[in-house]
Amino acid sequence: MSRCSIHPSILSADFVNLEAELARISTADAVHVDVMDNHFVPNLTLGLPVVERIQEVSPVPLDAHLMISEADRWAPLYADLGLASVTFHAEAAAAPIKLARELRARGSKAGMALRPATAVEPYLDMLTELDMLLIMTVEPGFGGQAFLDVMLPKIRRARAAVDGSGAKVAIQVDGGISASTIERAAEAGANVFVAGSAVYGADDPAGAVEALRAAAEGTVRA
Ligand code: DX5
Ligand code: ZN
To answer: Which of 4, 99, 117, 211 is spaced 20 to 30 A from 179 at the CA atom?
Structure first.
């Protein structure tokens, strides 16, 4: 059984009570922080000063998902906060290899995300530059959307490429992950799962995290 990680997204948490909301997911492997700029995506969330405070009070490491334009300029500043991992969008980066190297040089894991309509193939030669590949399973911008099953073949191709490359790259999925979809994503080859509404919409978020992890680990490919 491979180890699967669950990263609750605070996009579905109460933004006025973030410290208490973070305490409710102490069973998580990391907290997924969605940064949106109302430019790369049609929604606005939070930025550097708030992420800095979240980092100070969070019981688990931070996994920042930057849905922002000009990633080359902004992502290194998030790494400078000491975040465990920083994920930029390939579509928003002018020089993704250079940027991934800058993130690692600053001590963060380097993640790169792909919108649903962005093919993974043009990026396969840079897998060794990444610690995590995020395959969006909804159009980025909002929580609570339905999982796009049409992304499953892309997850499978990414898994085959990662395994073939020998690089240690996590495959993260984000969007519509719940008790009823996580098994399909795990079977296709994902091993890091973001869940917003499925965790924060539950009466017991910490228990929901454990149930999601058990479901994923029970079905993940050998
Ligand atoms: C969407 C965000 C997600 C979002 C997922 O653009 O990147 O992280 O919070 O929410 P759910 O799990 O509700 O689809
Ligand atoms: Zn996200």
So the answer is: 117
**5-221 fold:** TIM Barrel (3.20.20)
In sequence order, which ranges of 106-144 are alpha helices (DSSP H)? none
The ligand whose atoms approach the alpha carbon of 116 most closely is 1
Q: How many CB atoms lie within 10 A of CB 121?
A: 11
Say which of 14, 29, 34, 63 is annotated catalytic: 34
* Cβ 58 vs Cβ 22: under 8 Å: yes
Residue nearest ligand 1's atom 10 by CA: 143
- Tell me, yes or no, if 131 is annotated catalytic: no
CB 112 within 8 A of CB 96: yes
Q: What are the extents of the domains in the chain?
A: 5-221
Encoding tokens for residue 97?
């290899």
pTM attached to this predicted model: 0.97
163-172 burial by CB neighbour count: b if 16+ within 10 A, else e? eeeeeebbbb
Which region holds residue 166: left if phi is over 0, alpha if psi is between -120 and 50, else beta?
left
> What distance in Å separates the CA atoms of residue 71 and residue 88, rounded to the nearest whole number?
6
Ligand 1 pocket by Cβ (under 6 Å): 9, 11-12, 32, 34, 65, 138, 140-145, 174-177, 194-198
Q: Considering every ligand atom shown, identify the ligand nearest to the alpha carbon of residue 63 and give its number.
A: 2
